[in-house]
Amino acid sequence: MDMKATKKLGLKDRYRNQTRGLHWDTTYQPMDEVFPYDKYEGIKIHDWEKWEDPFRLTMDAYWKYQAEKERKLYAVLDAFNQSNGHLNVTDARYINAIKLFFAAIPLHEYMAHRGFAIAGRQFRGVGPRVACQMQSIDEIRHMQTQMHTASNYNKYYNGMHAVHHQLPRMWYASVPKSFFDDAITAGPFEWMIAIGFSFEYVLTNLLFVPFMSGAAYNGDLGSMTFGFSAQSDEARHMTLGLECIKFMLEQDPDNLPIVQRWIDKWTWRGTRVLSLVAMMMDYMLPKRVMSWKEAWEIYFEQNGGALFKDLERYGIKLPKCALQGIEEKEHISHQLWAGIYQWNFGTSVHSWVPSDDELDWLSAKYPNTFDKYYRPRWEFWREQEKTGTQFINTGLAENCQVCQFPMLFTEPGDPTTLCHRETHYKEERYHFCSDHCKEIFENEPEKYIQAWLPMNQLPQGTCGGGTLEGWMEWVHLVPGQDNGNFEGSQDQANFQKWKGQVTGNN
Amino acid sequence: MSVVAIKEYVGVPRDLEANYHGNIMTYITWEKHLMFAAPFIFPVPPSMLFGDYIKAIAGVIQPHPDAAKIDWSKVEWRKSYQPWQPDMAKTLAENGITHKCHMSFRTPGLDGIRGLGI
């Protein structure tokens, strides 16, 4: 009998079968009950078929590509581990940038994994469901690869032993945590704007490029490699975020004000979180890549500006907060590192006063602000250190109700005054670091009154009983080991000793 | 709309006065002294005399070289952004200070290191 071989399916047909072909409209139960979460946010969708996945990636191809990337990455990580790659970094101070990254990012990759799994279940359209499914798997892969990279450092250096435990407890970890908690408790469309658009599209370059270039400049092959491995996934995520926003805007004109409000909110929330990156770039990398100001200008003002220009035809405007971000690019890294330095008895990273070279670099990169406002602070603190009376701030800091940063940012137009805003809701006062955080609160107060503010919890006695020692134990911070100055730290001594063993005979 | 939700949604504030074991939370900023990176939190009993409250503040700001030079009788006060004159001999409650009140004070002639606001 003659066999009649059917022709192998082309890419387009395969994609159609593996996405649209997997969908059916339910008949025993109304679709609204099977998918109860994709209407309450007010977004109107008339035709889910209009969703286009620009990558047209099918699941079989996805596994093949990802497996190949994993093989390459783990070959490098193994080599890094076996050859004591951690000793090739420029200076042990660099490892504090890695500590900050691992305290803030991998566990939020995991939250992103969860969020996309949830959104994938909540959308009734099959196109976004499949795209969310792949992104969900990407995000858990990123968490895993970052953790595996971190473990090579965690074997040798302090401050990384309890990142999971510290995430809901450590005062600065609550900044990115509150960002992701806010996003994951929103509906699926807001989630897509929060993570898919504002974070992955508008702001991702300000997170990954600085950290990965920072790794490359400072001899950290491990972090550089997971960065590259994640990069091709990020390109897909950015496209998904942009597709989602265009889809919403094309479906119904009523969607525009909702989408604009989300863009405004999440661009600001993201900008606040990125202050941590700003500080890392300007203060924590022994070999600098570029200043935060330069990075902001390239990736936000130029690239982001072009993106918003492109979205103008849908009626989308540049977020209102962008102007404040532009002004703050000259300030935030200095303000935040000053905070970390004076509260460094309570951090899992070490800190230090910049060296003369570094102060000069900062003066050159920030000619409008550094000499005038910030250099005198560092020079004064350096003198204090020399006399053996290091400046320590033992007061508890007020937190912003929305971004949860200590309220250390200054008033727009006046870098000598702290910015402070207040509002009332149901007989209770709430405080904010900025007009934008206040506006986010006022749009949904019932959500943000529940914020777990790390400093406000201490006197309630929920964090180890209210004493500093009790708090340290509760947060798993080992005093004299994880915290304090880099100078004189165990990390510094060990790095020198091990480096000496590699390069000398002692 | 106080929250976008699929059904009725009521949040519970985490920082109610009842959670502070008889204390109230006060927030306070020393203007033009950015060496202290953020406003301070002081959980204190509302029955505390304002004069004693100032002693608590003085303890925390003591590492700043301006701290020892403050003449507390000349300090300019604000409460919720409005000019305000506290009475040192009265309690916080009698001075109208309630839970999560924000105050700030300015020390005329003392504007931080080299007058730079730090």
Task: Give a concise summary.
Chain A has 506 residues and is mainly alpha-helical.
Task: Report on the architecture of this protein.
The complex is a heterodimer of chains A (506) and B (118). With 506 residues, chain A is mainly α. Chain A has helices at 11-18, 31-34, 59-82, 95-104, 106-122, 126-154, 163-166, 174-184, 188-217, 221-251, 255-273, 275-284, 292-311, 322-328, 332-342, 356-365, 370-386, 435-443, 445-448, 454-457, 468-475, 490-503, and strands at 396-397, 410-411, 414-418, 421-425, 428-432. Chain A has a domain at 11-339: Ribonucleotide Reductase, subunit A, CATH 1.10.620. Chain A is built from 22 helices and five strands. In chain A, the strands form two sheets. A two-stranded antiparallel sheet of chain A has the order 2-3. The radius of gyration of chain A is 24 Å and the shape is globular. Chain B has 118 residues and is an alpha+beta fold. Helix content of chain B is 10%, strand content 21%. Chain B contains one helix and five strands; from the N terminus they run ββαβββ. Chain B has one helix at 50-61, and strands spanning 24-30, 40-44, 76-79, 82-84, 101-106. In chain B, strand 3 and strand 4 (82-84) form a beta hairpin. In chain B, 30% of the residues are buried. Strand 1 of chain A pairs antiparallel with strand 2 of chain B.
Name its key features:
heterodimer; A: 506 residues; mainly alpha; Ribonucleotide Reductase, subunit A; two-stranded antiparallel sheet; 22 helices; 5 strands; B: 118 residues; alpha+beta; Ubiquitin-like (UB roll); 1 helix
Strand content of chain A: under 5%
The beta-strand count of chain B equals 5
Rounded average pLDDT of chain B: 96
Q: Percent of residues of chain B in beta strands?
A: 15-25%
Query: CATH class of chain B, please?
Result: Alpha Beta
Q: Could you say what the CATH architecture of chain B is?
A: Roll
How far is the first residue's CA from the last residue's CA of chain A? 80 Å
The total count of helices of chain A amounts to: 22
